Amino acid sequence: MSTHWLKPYMPRSLYVRAALILVLPVIVLLLVVGIAFLQKHLEDVTSQMTRTVSREVNLVTGVMDETETQQQALAAVRPDLAALDMKVRFLDINEEPEIGRRRWYDFLAPQVESELRARLPDLMAVALPSSQEARLFLSTHLGVLQLSFDRRRLSPAAPHQLIVTMVFFAIIMTSISFFYMRNQLRPITRLAKAAQAFGRGRIVPYAPGGAVEVRAAGNAFLDMRSRIERQMEQRTLMLSGVSHDLRTPLTRLKLGLSMLPEEEAAPLQQDVIEMQSLLDAFLDFSRGVAESAPEEVEPEVFLNQIVDDAKRAGYSAELICAEGQGTVTLRPTAIRRAVENLIGNAVRYGNKADVSLTLNPNSLRIRVEDDGPGIPPEQRTEAVKPFTRLDPARNQNQGSGVGLGLAIVADIARAHGGTLRLAESERLGGLCADIIIGR
């Protein structure tokens, strides 16, 4: 049987789910035991006790039916009252029955009253004000009769104490279970925070702890983090080394071409420039976020600096909107490189770049829009892959690249635990690139 319909109603937090696993059985047990005890024991015993008292009351009223005055009635039932441990008196003509307020936790009182009314046709009212006394008011041919006797003759004494005791110890045991459960879940929470921080490009101190399974998961996480760090370092060293070693022959080529006639050297100079651009792109891609340490940054001030630098470089860029205040932990050099790449692409394939910022408690969004030809939806997934060029979609006459611009941006966004999303700009009609980073 499928249980997918339960998922929307289940809590997401592991702590809440564990608490539910602890509390739900306790509540069910209390309900089952309480209902079974009330129905199978208390109600049956109360019914038997009430039936006995009803027979005794009928005995007293039966004796009174044979008398003509109240004094004769009281005298006739006096021997029976001593044996039954009851007290009787007749109310005055203008005297009202004193009912009193029933105790709120006396959950057997309704059953007692119902049983008495069913077995005593002349019963006018029942007073159960305390656990010590019960008063019955009956209509007789001599007037209203008040019968008083011990409340414990109608039902078990203090039945609520069992329920209170059960609830009390259930709360105590559940509290102790919560305490130990919190200690067991704390290592899992620490592991989750360390993994989340690493996914966003930060290394936080972490030492495995807790149960054996949690320690095994923590050690596996540390091994994985070390392997990823080594892989990133090796990639950076390899690409940087290759790019650096190729600069020397390129420099020699430039010197050799400078000695040739200008009309012969021009095509070759263009090839050398493209090779130099390719090497620079390799270096940017290899560095990624390696050269930048996480810092607390004010996004609006930071983006204003990037846009001002782009303007000084001759780009038509503008920060058109900045929503939200606060700081975000970012790698400034890496984010600067990503935003500059988006601005460069925007002005290369369009006429201007509009930058906007949205900061809320959950995420940071940096948006760059242009008025260029954009990228078709079916090619956007390919556009963020390394060494992918979409020249038919992005006007090649406006410039050329090596297919690493958007790949670098996507790599930097992923290193911050975020993502790069491409869409069509509703304002300008070109490409809309969003860098979205969780806080």
From TrEMBL:
Q: Does Coiled coil appear among the keywords?
A: no
Q: How does it sit in the membrane?
A: Multi-pass membrane protein
Question: Where is it located?
Answer: Cell inner membrane
PROSITE patterns reported for this sequence: HAMP (PS50885), HIS_KIN (PS50109)
Histidine kinase domain ranges (all copies): 241-439
Q: Which InterPro entries match?
A: 2C_sensor_his_kinase, HAMP_dom, HATPase_C_sf, HATPase_dom, His_kinase_dom, HisK_dim/P_dom, HisK_dim/P_sf, Sig_transdc_His_kin-like_C
Q: Which domain of life is it from?
A: Bacteria
What Enzyme Commission number(s) does the record list for this chain? 2.7.13.3
Designated name of the protein: histidine kinase
